[in-house]
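Dear Dr. L.,

I hope this message finds you well. Following up on our conversation about the binding site, I have prepared a predicted three-dimensional model of the protein together with zinc ion. For your records, I am including the exact sequence and ligand specification that went into the calculation, followed by the structure tokens. Please feel free to forward this to your student if that is useful.
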Amino acid sequence: MREGQTTVIRREDYAAPAYWIDSVELTFDLDPAKTRVLNKMRLRRNPEVAAQALKLDGEELNLARVLVNGQGTSFKTEGDQLVLENLPTVTDAFDLEIFTTCAPEKNSKLMGLYVSQGTFFTQCEAEGFRRITYFLDRPDVMASYTVTLRADKKKYPVLLSNGNLVEQGDLDGGRHYAKWVDPHKKPCYLFALVAGQLVAREQRIKARNGREHLLQVYVRPGDLDKTEHAMNSLMASIAWDEARFKLPLDLDRFMIVATSDFNMGAMENKGLNVFNTKFVLASQATATDVDYANIESVVGHEYFHNWTGNRVTCRDWFQLSLKEGLTVFRDQEFSMDLAGEASARAVKRIEDVRVLRTAQFPEDAGPMAHPVRPDSYIEINNFYTVTVYEKGSEVVRMQQTLTSREGFAKGMALYFQRHDGQAVTCDDFAQAIADANPSSELARLLPQFKRWYSQAGTPQVAARGHYDAAAQRYTLTLTQSCPPTPGQAEKLPFVIPVALGLLYADGLEIPGSARTVVLSDAQTEVVFEGVASEPVPSLLRGFSAPVVLRYDYSDAELLTLLAHDSDPFNRWEAGQRLALKRALATIASGATEQPLDAAYLDAMRAVLRHPQLDAAFKELVLTLPSETYIAEQLEVVDPQRVHAVREAMRGQLALELREDWAWAYEQHHDTGAYRPDAVSSGRRALAGLALAMLCLAARETGDVVWPGKTYQRFKDAGNMTDRFNALAALVQSGHALARDALQRFHALFKNEALVLDKWFALQAGASDRGGDVLPAVKQLMKHPDFTLKNPNRARSLIFSYCSANPGAFHRADAAGYVYWSERVLELDALNPQVAARLARALDRWKKLAEPYRHAAREAIARVAAKPDLSNDVREVVSRALA
Ligand code: ARG
Ligand code: ZN
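The resulting structure of the complex is given below.
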């Protein structure tokens, strides 16, 4: 494998480009073995930068010809760059023509131009365009694109690129061509082409302003019946952005194309979004409610990038969160607004916070910790992280909290008024939001607020309450701190909006107590007068800031919050804290039996049987904190102990509440004709949890009825959610019927790649019993349907085991780590981006107890010892060992 040199790129070294590229005319002769690319550019020197050579990026290209103003010219190559020194010195525009070839069928990295199931696709973000042609591959160089595609007409009947189709026709030798012009200037990372045998679902719409648009969702011929939900999601996205932010669609044609080989979720190429099939294709027979929800949010996310990312883009890749944090915020708000009423919005908020706390908090506490706007990187692909995306979204959300919903919308309008068509920074964004709201807390505290962009680590807010009965006064003291992260030993105080309220012990909210306190000092005191008796504080309502809140809650206080808080997020949080307290106490005690007491079990029963609460909310409350989340609360982690204790808790919850679970299943399992809406998907989720619990309880009681019913359900289910939940209940309880069910499931769906991914993932993620998961995973590697080359399939088996099943992965015999190191190396030779993601599975090795810690270090060192590692994996493992 060939890799560029290991150079650290630093934000402070940013310099404007020495040349601008005004326009690009690309002509492709598409051939999987050898594609010819003619690139005609019109360039001009940037007069604001000292005259210097033009250095163009290129990777794995065969260079055939370079012409300047139609004439041959001298050039040299330096590493991966093409260097032109003798260019016209005047600042007049000149033409540069470069002719190269590349081999898409050999491109296993899935960056640049590649072939997936006989169809050509491109992926250019972040630095893939340089694998297509020599270019100034940086987001602050924006050009107009004209693209001509030529290919065999039979094999590649559909030829797509960005913008509008202006010409098409036949050529000699069974070939044809299409010419596309993009009316908008764009950075090269937003370039795309697609060529192959595809069909499209089409929809013509008329926007509020009267403009007509053609929407298309392109898929392989057999998949057309799975595109309705994606199209509906796209139409909903367009309507939402117009309504909430007055941002219209600026194109005549908007296309989505699905590919089964994709490194990430999806890509917002201008007018031609390319999606992982996982986030496009859905039918009730093959997709779960979670898939439906993900499709809605990813379609929204990529569509919203059309403004936040494409119309206004990033000056450099350190500013990635400018578009990603903001666009995640927008897609979260979109899903919340579509969910409808307050309780459904809260469910979405809880799900988002759960992702943040189980994935981003560990990242922020580990070796890869970086600010939302990083200061340096070796491989930018390693910085498409939960910090840049999810924490970045929280940083935008706090800006909305500090300016109000209307104020934030005004700020967005000012941002576009100032920066439309530009490549800008995170500072520019926050400045626009603040300037549009001059009397807001954000404007008052802006320089300090921006520490959220520059300081890594999860801040901790410790709260203490003091009640003075004589004075009827309650004083809340909030103290903030932030642990050190790599390269940042000391942190300065953050601006932290803490939404809170006070409840009396009987659950009644104290009138006038609800407020948002904005912390900016290390310590803040809040005084409440006229408080008749000792209150229960409900702190960080709605998770108003991405922090760890420490408050020494008693059980009684948590039970009050769980039963009565007006903030649904904190009701859920109280339940989680009750469970966490018990998990931590049991882990510390050394015992494993009966971690749960009657008070907890009664509270959970009350939630489960509650006449008013939504099923979706109940399901969230009754789901115990994950092993990963529990582990994060410990100084030293014995993963087997965490697993054993959590399993004991689950077993107890299953057994002690079995009649309630049976009741819940009977009440919720019939949801009528399949619709993926919030209410019916919530009912299915609760029925699914109930079945899982009933199968688990059956292990103890020897009951055969519920496993039998579950198997029947698995066979009869009218939709994938119910079918998969039943299958998972059998697998997770280790029931003998699981084997047969798994076989049937495979036979039923052997031609549905996305369903097979679920089949692999379920087995790799199964609850470990005596180390039985790893042998099963190894066996599945030999299954004819397994391949390392397809990222979805590799993730479904290997990541589900290494990254999502701690109880099975962390083995005292170190076999899980050996398996991990082998797969990282194997994947690295094929696809470094995917390999580097897998490499992150051992990020938190330093927290592990022995013998895990030592064995994990050895496994990482084994990977690091490989001489020709990609930059991607090298950066991850060397940071882990540092
Ligand atoms: N911009 C895309 C999205 O968030 C992600 C593309 C990342 N691709 C990559 N190779 N790093 O929607
Ligand atoms: Zn994005």
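In brief: The CA atoms of residues 586 and 595 lie 6 Å apart.

With kind regards,
A. P.
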